[in-house]
Structures are given as C-alpha cells and as structure tokens.
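The methods section describes the discrete structure representation at length, but only in general terms. The central task, working out the structure tokens from the amino acid sequence alone, is never made concrete. Nothing conveys this as quickly as seeing an actual entry. For illustration, here is how one protein appears when written out as sequence plus structure tokens:
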Amino acid sequence: MGKGRKTRRALERGGTGPAQRLNETLARWPRVRITPMFGRWGYFVGERLFACFPVREKERDLWIRLAHDDQRRALADSRVRPHRRFSRKGWIELDVEGIEDMGRAVRWLRRGYTAAAHGVPDEAEADS
C-alpha cells in the first residue's frame, strides 16, 4: 500500500483565520470537542453537534443549531439567515468574515452550546 494522504497544514494548526479564532475560543469551553468532518470543523458537546465552520479559509459560513425560540430571535437579525437545508431543525447560518463578526458569532454559539448541553431533542426525536 502507498502512504496515506498528508494532513493539511490548516488541520495541524487547528485552522487559519476566523476558524482558528473560533477553535481557540470554543476549545476553552467545558466538554467541547472539535473535530474536522466533511470539510468543516464540527463542534460537539458530548455526542451532540451544535455548530460547524468551514476548514477552508475562503468559506466563512458558520452553522449553528439553536433551540427554536433562539432561532427565531437570531433570524430577526438581517445578518443571520435560516440554514439552506436544516432550518426546520433549528439551524441558522451567519458569515464570519473577520474579528468584527466574532462577538455576534460567539453569542449565538454560546446559546447553541447551552441548548446542546441541556439536551435539545435530536433530529430523530424531533421528527417523531
């Protein structure tokens, strides 16, 4: 067998640009696990995915899963939009272009983290 693919430098460093700042912030939160998955950084509390952000620096759309009341509040902000496929499950999207967007992103991430930590129903539970 040939040798495997090299780990991308961005993965080794924990991301670049806004992804690195988000990863450094979220890594300090209790029980948060950060793992690359399908070209995005996945943010988990235990086994629950509560957010993800692209690994590639060119892409800047942060996805966050919120409780439905928080999702409604978030969507009142014109800079936040419903997730293109999973909005019915509480997911939103917002762009994190630079440091000026980090405060808003972290506020919604904190709400998504809290909802996941306190057991917002999984998709399978919500559908039944």
